[in-house]
Inverse folding.
């Protein structure tokens, strides 16, 4: 059942849910009222505005029940694999087997936002010397220690090398506390010398073939570790099937992004768009359900576009957003200020690109891992961003700095300057903390002038 799209509060969702149930609405096993998650202290839901579709309800319930799925998988005897600082590579390998489930421990960085600091994870991290000068992913350290947010993995895997310095320090602190981590290295992606064999990566970057070979050897080591814990071989046939399923997720997200970012009226709010894209990283611990959830969302979006329904009008400014926000409330704020989301770089372009299916499967994953914009130069990333901006005809760019993140201290300046030098698209920067209520006026004061600049330029 489809309703005229609008954004509603948590209490309004309860009323709508009752009407849906009376009309014969069928939902998944993890379904139910969105407000029930308040019992788990997901207090931030009370301050958000949500899409009013049944598909969006499914998306939110899927996201907010991941912890339950992980514990249930553990109870059923499946092996739990934590893929740290991975963003889409190891989970493809893990989900190729029936008795392993992968998840993203780094995702705990959103927990302080969702639980409005009632979780205490930052305080635990601070007792271990990881204070607010570090990225919000420090919440992961607290989650490992209080054991309240996910089961301790049977196998913990983490990439090293060309990764965020903050995360590297936090992962090493975790290792020093006795957590056994299997490390694999991702080198800094560089441009090939004139005498080197070149490899074109998903998304368009170029790397020396020797780097592909190195990453492939690293992934082969990790594959052996997964096989040990699973007591099963990850054959080429199984891994190819896993890649094909992962590409199904990417195909669905590609169509969702294309429709949402190009439709005359935006058929999906920015908040739900960000949540949907995040599923690409590790499939919210259930690859099959991710596919079904995205299928539902895509059907709703197509229906809205067909009927001319949407959340924006022709005056809404088309904004490209760089970096995920620690406080989800910022996505609502963008639309309150007169913007609409028309392009994103939430740090994992490569998890949205198709994995090559015409290569040996481990080599294909090596291609994908090196396609990560974050393992190359900031200039490479800026070029990819501008390419996407032009594709979706974005009119403005917002770069949300991640508090404490040190993967490149000058990255925002590099991206902003590159866009300025190669286009006439205005940009703005703002810092978004895990709970930004006191800073919302300041964030608004960064967004509103940007929106007004675009509108003035249109005249």
């Amino acid at each position: 059942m489809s309703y005229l799209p609008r954004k509603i509060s948590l209490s309004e969702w309860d009323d709508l849910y009752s009407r849906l149930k009376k009309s014969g609405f069928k939902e998944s096993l993890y379904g139910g009222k969105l407000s029930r998650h308040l019992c788990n202290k997901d207090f931030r839901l009370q301050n958000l505005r949500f899409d009013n579709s049944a598909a969006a309800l499914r998306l939110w319930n899927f996201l907010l029940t991941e912890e339950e799925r992980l514990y249930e998988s553990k109870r059923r005897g499946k092996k739990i694999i934590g893929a740290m600082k991975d963003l889409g590579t190891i989970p493809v390998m893990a989900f190729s087997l029936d008795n392993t489930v992968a998840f993203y421990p780094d995702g705990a960085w959103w927990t302080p936002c969702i639980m409005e600091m009632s979780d205490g994870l930052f305080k635990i991290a601070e007792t271990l010397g990881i204070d607010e000068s570090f990225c919000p992913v420090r919440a992961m350290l607290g989650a490992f220690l209080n054991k309240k947010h996910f089961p301790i993995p049977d196998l913990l895997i983490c990439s090293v090398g060309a990764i965020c310095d903050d995360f590297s320090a936090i992962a090493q602190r975790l290792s020093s506390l006795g957590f056994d981590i299997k490390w694999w290295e991702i080198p800094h992606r560089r441009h090939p010398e004139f005498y080197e064999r070149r490899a074109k990566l998903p998304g368009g970057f170029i790397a020396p073939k020797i780097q592909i070979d190195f990453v492939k050897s690293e992934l082969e080591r990790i594959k052996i570790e997964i096989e040990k814990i699973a007591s099963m071989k990850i054959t080429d046939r199984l891994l190819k099937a896993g890649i094909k399923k992962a590409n199904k997720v990417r195909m669905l997200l590609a169509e969702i992004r294309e429709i949402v970012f190009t439709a005359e009226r935006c058929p999906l709010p920015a908040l739900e768009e960000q949540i949907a894209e995040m599923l690409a990283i590790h499939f919210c611990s259930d690859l099959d359900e991710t596919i079904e959830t995205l299928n539902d969302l895509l059907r709703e979006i197509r229906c809205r576009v067909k009927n001319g329904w949407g959340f924006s009008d022709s005056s809404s400014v088309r904004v490209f957003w760089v970096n995920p926000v620690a406080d989800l409330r910022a996505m609502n704020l963008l639309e309150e200020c007169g913007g609409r989301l028309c392009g994103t770089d939430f740090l994992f372009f490569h998890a949205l690109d198709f994995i090559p299916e015409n290569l040996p499967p481990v080599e294909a994953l090596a291609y994908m891992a090196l396609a990560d914009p974050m393992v190359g130069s900031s200039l490479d990333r800026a070029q990819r961003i501008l390419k996407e901006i032009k594709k979706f005809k974005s009119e403005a760019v917002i770069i949300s700095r991640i508090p404490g993140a040190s993967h490149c201290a000058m990255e925002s300046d590099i991206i902003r300057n590159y866009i300025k030098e190669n286009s006439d698209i205005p940009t703005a920067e703002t810092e978004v903390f895990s709970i930004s209520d006191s800073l919302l006026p300041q964030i608004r004061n960064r967004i509103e002038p940007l929106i007004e600049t675009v509108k003035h330029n249109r005249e």
